[in-house]
Amino acid sequence: MVKKNIGQVKWENHNAFDKSKNAYFGKTSHGVDVYLNHHLKDANLVILIGLVEPHLWAGFGGGLKNILPGVAYAETIGHHHSIIAEPPYRFNRVAVDAENNSFRLDLEETFNMIKSEIFCINVVLNSKKEIIACFAGHPIHCHREAVAFTKTICGLLLQKQVDGIITNSAPMDINFKQSMKCVGNTLPALRPKGIVMGFLRAQRGLDDIPLPEKSTPLWLTRTILRTLGPARVLRFLEKVKPGLDVEQKFLTYYSMQLIRAHNLYFYVPSLSDAEVKALGFFERFNQPQEVIERGLKHLGKKATIAVFKEGGATFPLLSVK
């Protein structure tokens, strides 16, 4: 076997914004025109290397998600992501089985569009970022096995949805975007209009999240979104904030659906009052106990509450849906 270091291997970063660097592969059953990195047209072998962990929309990371959106054209990514804004407007799909997740099934249609052999390597990590399991082979079959394993070590069984959740961001503590995973991961445990009490470390603060120049008071935003209902949130977003890139558009959409569906009470010591006001989608408290007191005041003494001490890596599995 000939060993090479990275300096001897020809490589390039995928360009999602240059259409000439992407080739047309077909149309999914959801009507998404699939443009992918042009090298996939003449590749002899495609190797996918990924991590299986909870994902807001794909249910879990890994598998053919490395293809779409991994090496897709920006317009393809945008069209594909619009699936989360289709009926039944399920904006959070963490731990949803692939067979019941139109977002996951749509991206997996790329398997039959690519003529070359595709080999997948998916790993599962523990909280120390150590590999504890590896699955390899067919990109759909091995991904299903990795998901089943992940559920056994990270899924927490609940009999039914609860009125409130208490969650923290560990081990996803590096910045606000990563710390917010604890909300998405645990949200399936929450009944409609339930309360989130979150403790987000966000060591590097907002990091690369751009702040809007103007912000609307949270109470007003919530009133508008609850009046509009889930079906009209995306259309409203496109009117009030045109021109957002794909990532910002759908993360903002997600935040708006959160505002509409739930009340969020957070302790995030790394953010300033100005940053929290600009983000405009949660109430921030200066002491951890204040979060609990506010949540309990809202919920009442008879509320049911689930606690996720490592919300950045764990998620609920409901035995009764």
The computed structural class is alpha/beta
Strand order within the widest sheet?
12-11-10-9-13
CATH superfamily of the largest domain, by name, is LarA, C-terminal domain
CATH class of the largest domain: Alpha Beta
Mean pLDDT, all residues = 95
Tell me how many strands there are: 14
Cα end-to-end separation: 52 Å
| CATH-assigned fold name of the largest domain | 2-enoyl-CoA Hydratase, Chain A, domain 1
Number of domains: 2
- H/E element sequence: EEEEEHHEEHEEHHEHHHEHEHEE
**What is the correct CATH architecture of the largest domain?**
Alpha-Beta Complex
Please tell me what the overall shape is: globular
Largest sheet: 5 strands, parallel
- Calculate Rg over CA atoms: 20 Å
Figure out the total of helices: 10
Low-confidence stretches: none
Percent strand equals: 15-25%
Describe the structure.
The structure is a single chain. This protein has helices at residues 74-81, 102-108, 141-154, 176-179, 181-186, 218-228, 233-240, 246-261, 273-279, 288-299, and strands at residues 22-27, 33-37, 45-51, 54-55, 59-60, 117-125, 131-137, 155-158, 162-168, 190-199, 263-267, 283-284, 305-308, 315-318. By secondary structure, the protein is α/β, with parallel strands linked by helices. The chain has 2 domains: 1-155, Rossmann fold, CATH 3.40.50; 159-321, 2-enoyl-CoA Hydratase, Chain A, domain 1 (Alpha-Beta Complex), CATH 3.90.226. The N and C termini lie far apart (52 Å).
